[in-house]
Design a protein that fits this description.
The protein is an alpha+beta fold. The chain has one domain: Alpha-Beta Plaits. The protein has 5 helices and 4 strands. It has a 4-stranded antiparallel sheet with strand order 2-3-1-4, with helices on one face. Strand 2 and strand 3 form a beta hairpin. Helix 1 crosses helix 4. It is elongated and about 65 Å long. It starts with a helix and ends with a helix. About 20% of the residues have low confidence.
Length: about 150
């Protein structure tokens, strides 16, 4: 039941973000999608969310073709958005790039536009709201060990 509620909530969120993504972008110095990502990073505000971005290689293209598309579309200049903080960026063989970002709440639209404008045609994109499960898992393991000790 909880999975269904979570799935419905995420679906509503992403549908609303897709609708908002079609609105024109207002250019400002700190939020411009067009701005270079090599500039000094903008620290995310305290109210932020984690997002996992999966850029799946389009397997009908070789690496040279993918690179040409990314350069032509300015991918490296617009992704990640300036207000995003890259927490990890890994390559999963036979899958593609798996990127964990921390973005300010409310900047999902900028992230979406940077992917639509820069990555489409080279990658199939997937975006997931994410949270750090490690502390939950560690707490569970600790409580489980304590419960085992109490039983003996």
């Amino acid at each position: 039941m909880l999975k269904k509620i979570l799935l419905i909530g995420l679906s509503v969120f992403f549908v609303s973000q897709i609708a908002l993504a079609q609105q024109p972008v207002e250019k400002t110095d700190s939020t411009s999608v067009e701005g270079p990502s090599m500039a000094a990073p903008v620290e995310p505000i305290a109210d932020s969310i984690l997002v996992t971005v999966v850029l799946k290689h389009q397997q009908d293209k070789n690496l040279s073709e993918i690179r040409r598309i990314l350069e032509a579309q300015g991918f490296w200049d617009i992704f990640p958005p300036q207000d995003a903080r890259v927490l990890s960026w890994t390559i999963a063989m036979n899958l593609g790039h798996v990127i964990l970002l921390k973005i300010p709440a409310g900047s999902e639209r900028r992230l979406n536009l940077s992917l639509e404008n820069g990555a489409w045609g080279a990658f199939n994109t997937e975006v997931y709201l994410t949270y750090d499960y490690k502390p939950v898992w560690e707490n569970y393991v600790e409580r489980r060990e304590e419960a085992k000790a109490d039983r003996h």
